[in-house]
Design a protein that fits this description.
The protein is α/β, with parallel strands linked by helices and 359 residues long. It has two domains: 1-55, Orthogonal Bundle (DNA polymerase, domain 1); 57-341, TIM Barrel (Alpha-Beta Barrel). It is 30% helix and 20% strand. The strands form three sheets. It has a ten-stranded mixed sheet with strand order 1-2-3-4-7-8-9-10-11-12, covered by helices on one side. Strands 5-6 form a two-stranded antiparallel ribbon. The chain has a two-stranded antiparallel sheet with strand order 13-14. Helix 4 packs across helix 5 (162-173), helix 6 runs parallel beside helix 8 (232-241) and helix 9 (264-273) packs parallel to helix 10. The longest helix is centred in the middle third of the chain and has 18 residues, at 124-141. The radius of gyration is 21 Å and the shape is globular. The two termini are 25 Å apart. Bound molecules: iron/sulfur cluster.
């Protein structure tokens, strides 16, 4: 629930609205998971509130630890599904990568989550609770570390689950809760053009990352079938119209796949395509996993690609893989425990898959 919804609930139960706010602060500010933790609310009022709301949506089922300090957290939902979230320490900063769906419908060919298919959307509480459970874990294991940044880049396409993602953003940015600033939150999309247009009109506006991965429709059609619905021209048109605030840029993600999109000609086309956009490009060398028939380009090819982009004036950053030894790096989230899959994946071998249904 957002704060407004909690206050409305209290009113609907015949209680003063501030009782809703008190309970909300316990859950979203202090991470309470039981009503009897709420020591400033009497037992009778707590019992009334419990008639209309549940708290504590996720159970931390497993923590896998990478040698680089990254932690992959597997949660189970009340109805027994697994989702994953990743904590990435980087100096003073700690970024949490959170999931927005159980699986994903978008079917990017290089992504392990895609092979799970879509089971269901996460509700706003399940999205936010990943942060609260991770915060509790850090408090127990590394009390000096705080979650400073959030990226909606885990399992799922956030804009496919638009309403719950927006509600979770309102909850997580509230100063009465964990109060993570909008500028420290990034929502990533594969390019759902109508939802991008809608996002541009919201009062809460996180940073935007767009998974681009190709400089032409032929390659993007092949590796991201969503491109058949909203091609590069439509996507870039929507981004050109997106009301970016002062000094903000769109981040384009570019997963570099050997022999697919990593040539110097690809780099030159990319620089030409993005000329005039307020943007930067994150180059992500492919993180191999058994479900995708791609390979990572050689270090020389990666450097040459980045240098060519830079030479042509395109700001690029090379993302070093984090947590790849525990399958926690970009594109690797598929509910594995010690390398073993917890649910079978959809096995598909198609040269050119149809566009997924992600309206
Ligand atoms: S990359 Fe993102 S949008 Fe594409 S299939 Fe994977 S989780 Fe879904």
């Amino acid at each position: 629930m957002t704060l407004d919804q909690a206050q409305d609930l209290a009113a609907a139960l015949g209680l003063p609205r501030f009782r809703g706010e008190q309970a909300w602060r316990w859950v979203h500010g202090k991470g309470a998971i039981a009503w009897d933790e709420m020591t400033n609310i009497g037992p009778e009022v707590r019992a009334r509130l419990a008639e209309g709301a549940q708290i504590g949506t996720l159970t931390l089922a497993e923590v896998q630890r990478s040698k680089d300090g990254t932690k992959k957290l597997r949660f189970t939902t009340r109805d027994g599904y697994s989702i994953e979230s990743v904590l990435i320490p980087d100096g003073e900063k700690t970024t949490q990568c959170i999931s927005s769906q159980v699986g994903c419908a978008v079917d990017c060919q290089f992504c392990a989550t895609a092979k799970l298919g879509l089971t269901r959307n996460l509700d706003a509480g399940e999205i936010a609770d990943q942060v609260y459970r991770a915060r509790a874990l850090l408090a127990a294991e590394e009390p000096d570390r705080r979650i400073t940044n959030l990226v909606y880049m885990g399992m799922g396409e956030p804009l496919h689950n638009y309403d719950n993602v927006m509600r979770s953003l309102r909850i997580l940015t509230s100063d009465l809760g964990v109060g993570i600033g909008q500028r420290r939150i990034t929502v990533s999309t594969a390019g759902l053009v109508p939802r991008l247009e809608k996002l541009g009109n919201e009062d809460v506006r996180p940073n935007l990352a767009v998974s681009l991965n190709a400089s032409n429709d032929r390659v993007r059609d092949e590796i991201m079938p969503i491109n058949k619905k909203w091609n590069i021209a439509k996507l870039l048109g929507a981004l050109r119209a997106y009301p970016l605030e002062h000094r903000r840029r769109v981040t384009f993600e570019y997963v570099l796949l050997a022999g697919v999109n990593d040539s110097l000609a690809d780099a030159a086309d990319l620089a030409k395509l993005l000329r005039g956009h307020r943007c930067k490009v994150n180059i992500i060398p492919f993180n191999p996993h058994p479900e995708a028939g791609y390979t990572r380009p050689s270090p020389e090819a990666i450097t040459a690609f980045q240098n060519e982009c830079k030479r042509l004036g395109l700001p690029t950053y090379l993302r070093t893989p984090r947590g790849d030894d525990i399958d926690a790096a970009c594109g690797q989230l598929a509910n594995r425990s010690n390398g073993e899959l917890l649910v079978p994946l959809r096995v598909k071998k198609r040269a050119s898959p149809p566009a997924p249904n992600v309206d």
